[in-house]
Amino acid sequence: MTIAEERAAAAAHGPTTAYTGINDRTQLNPIFARPGESTDLPVDRIPDNESLPETAYQIVHDESMLDGNARLNLATFVGTWMDDHAARLYAESADKNMIDKDEYPQTAAIETRCWKIVAGLWNAPDPEKAIGTSTVGSSEACMLGGLALKRRWQLARKAEGKPTDKPNLVLSSAVQVCWEKFCNYWDVEPRYVPITDEHKVLDGHELEKYVDENTIGVVAIMGVTYTGMYEPVAEISKALDRIQEQTGLDVKIHVDGASGGMIAPFLQPDLEWDFRVPRVVSISTSAHKYGLVYPGLGWVVWRTAGDLPADLVFDVTYLGGHMPTFALNFSRPGAQVLLQYYLFLRLGFDGYYRVQKASQDVALYLSGEIAKMPAFELWNDGSDIPVFAWQLKKGHTDKWNLYHLSERLRLKGWLIPAYPMPDDLTDLTVQRIVVRNGLSHNLAESLVVDIQEAVEYLDALESPMPTEGQVHSFTH
């Protein structure tokens, strides 16, 4: 084909791109092309012919370069860095299937070790009598915790000859979206307790308005997604104690410790939020958040085996083995479980403390510097989990808002979301920073400078910034 013919063919396909599926072709940089090899490949259908592995690698590598810099992504809670030894272990165990306990019995044994370690961190009365499992992430772990609450309630109602068709679950209006999914998927009425300026989290205030005989449980969050604040589990439990004294209703608590479940044991060991609170029957966490493991991995633990209804556990024969399973997923990676065990061995209690304390120190530094800026007012300071949010101070400006600041910071590579608060506070917009392992104090200092410069630029505007087409960005 002549150059002219090649150009004509390329023109017929339209512009080529190496970064998205906007167009229908993707093209390899000629410097990576091999003689006789096609460098113009379809995007949305499988190519007619195979490519060399080097070619396929280069195309995927080049396209993924246009993703954001994970170290500068302060929107997500999910871990983005592990050391070289973890990477080696990951590569060596990527082929392990967690469900295949007959083929990979040692991985299964390590999974059990891990949830028993976690049960101990959460002050289970006897970790040997607790029961737990790994999950793909905290969303699956929450689903299992919620299902156990619902099934316990159903069994108790049936034993009393009462109907089971109207279960409800009490939770904060600032709850993570996985709980909305749980209620939707499993036909449970969500009863949202609205957060307010006076009650920034679910704290037991007026809980009696939401609890009745159909309540399967209350969800308490250790690290609200919107702001990072802890919900006071002990206070919620006391409110439920009062409700039981007045009504006889014995309502249990599931603690969603997606982030705080791996922070509080190390940074706030005296805070009673876990199995030290008798009403807490189950706790879940995200290992790929402050458990410091690559996604996706979560843990859920029940106080005792009796707190997990037996009819939720399936006994299956698979690939020559015989084992119980109660996860929502079946085949799933086992590598992350090994990574969690590696970190438990590598860091120990003291190491986890120092890693989490370093993140908290950076969060407190950042929130302190932002609090000094006249434009802002803190919602919280990051002293619970290393996450904090702030709002634009009333009356500071009518020329820009936090969405504009978010866009301005994105020009420097920083991903810092702005979004409205949940029901009853939807007119309030906040920005949130999640400090994870890898955000050093030096990087934080650079961020402060970038925020100051962005605010100076926006404050100097002579007319208001346009607001058309603005969308909020929110990473759970």
TrEMBL record:
EC number(s) recorded for this UniProt protein: 4.1.1.15
Entry keyword Lyase: yes
InterPro entries found in the cross-reference section: Glutamate_decarboxylase (IPR010107), PyrdxlP-dep_de-COase (IPR002129), PyrdxlP-dep_Trfase (IPR015424), PyrdxlP-dep_Trfase_major (IPR015421)
Domain of life where this protein originates: Bacteria
Region described as Disordered: 1-22
Catalysed reactions, as listed in the record: L-glutamate + H(+) = 4-aminobutanoate + CO2
Pfam families xref list: Pyridoxal_deC
Cofactor dependence: pyridoxal 5'-phosphate
Keyword vocabulary terms for this entry: Decarboxylase, Lyase, Pyridoxal phosphate
Any one GO molecular-function label of the UniProt entry: glutamate decarboxylase activity
First-tier enzyme category under EC: lyase
Family assignment from sequence similarity: Belongs to the group II decarboxylase family.
The name this protein goes by in its record: Glutamate decarboxylase
